[in-house]
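Thread: "does anyone have the structure for this chain?"

Original post by V.I.:
We have the sequence but no experimental structure in hand. Need at least a predicted one for the grant figures.
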Amino acid sequence: MIDAAAAEVYLRPRLPEADGRFAIAPLGGGQSNPTFRVTFGDRAYVLRKQPAGALLPSAHAVDREYRVLRALAATDVPVPRTYLFCDDRAIVGTPFFVMDHVPGRTLWDPAMPDLDPRARALLWDDANRVIAALHRVDYAAIGLADYGRPGNYFARQIARWTRQYRASETERIDAMDRLIDWLPGAIPDDDETTLVHGDYRLDNLLVHPVQPRIVAVLDWELSTLGHPLADLAYHVMAWRLTKAEFRGMAGRDLAALGIPSEHEYVETYCRHAGRGPIERNDWEFCMAFSMFRLAAILQGIARRALDGTSASADAVADGARARGIAQAAWRQVMHAAAGPRA
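Reply from O.Q.:
Generated one for you, tokens below.
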């Protein structure tokens, strides 16, 4: 619980327009870092803090989130304005930062059933534009040259998520074993480095209250310097996975919904990003890697659910999806080896 009185004493003199009655209340959304709506009268802010308790050394780094949001403020990437970072644990129990409360909608289903086809098309195009804008950012020029380790991203990530998966393994998943053996030898020669979000999904994009456009990109906890195609492929998994597998739209009539095909979406990204076509084998590797990474993340959720340490009501169901996603990834590896996708 947050000490509201201590929070008010600290925040009121440090935030603009902090007049009127103070209130603080939790914001939902499933973020791993607890998030709260702070109001002074009609003026609203968002406070995002580390969770309490023992944490892994690199986890829940709200200081990194604050840093990247401040750095991106002058770019074409829409992010909330930030106001302060505080590492004094006496205020709300853990380090935190405060940013603007941006009005908008969170959409969880990539098929966007409540929108019409034109709105879906425009919104997906804007999501495409924003991720391309992120990858075009000169990260050194905005002070993020040391935000990660340039180069060798895939090899480091495969090793990291293999360790995480093995540490949380609850049962043998043959497809994961095959991916762990195959991925290191299939890494593309092209070794690009850009700023990457790490979790660029529709539900981490805040949509304008009435218009089909992105007003803020949220949840930068996994951001770093990495390979842009890894970031893009993780985003495009929505085209390869079904809703039942994990928040996807595979098997839907995309043309009728006004949503571009995967091929069209990737081509649009290349235009927005100012790059040439992506070589097919490189793209299939990126998709398999992204599914492997997601399966490893979900396996960790399964382990925590089994140990009784997960706070999420959906942990058991989410963790159970690791096997299906790993199997889908390996099927795609085999399909790609057999010839071009239909």
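V.I.: this helps a lot. The beta strands are 22-26, 35-40, 43-49, 82-86, 96-100, 105-106, 194-196, 205-207, 214-217, 224-226.
O.Q.: and The first strand starts at residue 22 and ends at 26.
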